[in-house]
Design brief:
about 140 residues, mainly alpha, three-stranded antiparallel β-sheet, 5 helices, elongated
Length: about 140
Amino acid sequence: AVVSTQSTAVLPQLKTSRAREEVGAREEDIFNTKMVNPFKPSNVSQKQMYTTRAQKDEKLQNKRIRLDRESVENMVLKAFRKHQYISMKGLISITSQPEAYLKEFLHEMCVYNQKAPHKNMWELKPEYRHYEEEPGASAD
């Protein structure tokens, strides 16, 4: 392999021209690429669309609406007349009030038990335990 002096002089020029072409091609690739849509079209049938709308409507109908303060207090006291300890789920189902709204009353009126045997249950504070006597019962 004999290399002539002419080819050695041309070799660096070829390398630099090829490098420029490659850089130019990369820049063109970067700027000429099309934008890719990141969202895929959903394959939801019409039936599924109607069921989801129906479910949304049902959720809106089942939403708990805040009642006035006095009526909620009466419902809570009435529930505690039947049972001394009640869970949060039980109170929500009895009063059908939002959990956050119900907690406002419970922190004022009740004590939260964190230890056994009535763990995670609410109990009325002593100042609210004015249970009404049943008619016909005499206090001798």
